[in-house]
Prior knowledge:
The chain is mostly beta strands and 340 residues long. The protein has two helices and 25 strands. Strand 21 and strand 22 form a beta hairpin. The N terminus is likely disordered.
Amino acid sequence: MIHKYIVIIIFLAYLPSSGHLSAQDQPPANTTLNLQTWPQLYIADVDGKNPKRLFPESTHRAEGSPSFSEGGQLMIFSGFNAEKKERATSSVIYLVDLESGEETKLCQGLNPSLSPRGKRFFYSRYDDRGVWVANVENPEETATKLDPKGWGTAWSPNGKMLAWASYSNSYNLKILDIVEGDEWIVFEGEKSPFRIIYFNFAWSPDSRNIVFKGITHERKTGIFAAQVIKEREPILLTEISSVHESVDWHPDGSKILFSQIDPELKIYRLYTMEPLKPDAKPVPVPNLPPQMIATNPRYTRNGKQIVFAAAMKPPVKKEEDKEDEKAKAAANAVKEKKDE
């Protein structure tokens, strides 16, 4: 039995306030790495080389939460029109055939997870809050709510289970075996160890473990791993207060991928780490441009590339530029006074 206690639902947008970038009126419509607007999806080699915009023509859209079908041909993600100053609450889910480039708008929602065969998707909704599952072919007609007190979704690699963060009585991970119809929570007992479990968590390739960002009741913040089949105490892999919400597991099981604030650059960057190894040392993904803010990472199904949400940090103004701006402001103030 789950004992009731009050929890606070914290949902962060694609980039947190510490990494906020102000939108420009006319974002540049090109594929070069000088986009200084809202986060959009990029693709790069697994070592960070050759980063490029995934959808260079969609300059108005904030994008995040990519998820792939088993073969890697289909990708699902969520986005909203940042140019019109929309928010994450207006997010729409899109399905893309990466071979043909064909893009289909499925429905309103966010944090989607695609089934291995790409026939169905699991997602969160703001308009009728909770976690839902629907068919790709006719999402509006087949949409089914699974938990009104759920958020964040992840379809297991074997296609048999769904996982989400549930806050019906305590913050917990809930699992649904869609083959047998069984449903259970991961953390049994007096209460869940967590006061918050964040969305965009990930399954291990063998569908036995889930890795996620969490905050315990003792206020430890970091990346945790938990076995979902048999109850076990969660493993604190690394305690990092600045870790971003999204975590992924490499298809060969060798490492996990996540984003945290770089101590020198002071922006979110991509890191990898050995899985299921407490106190493993995070290793920066090399070769990304130093001004690139990167979050929401996902491995492609073959493990050779990464897809992530990124934006470029505005360049730091030189002292002479600041002095020029002050001089111009002073001149404008004098002119306005004369006009009066």
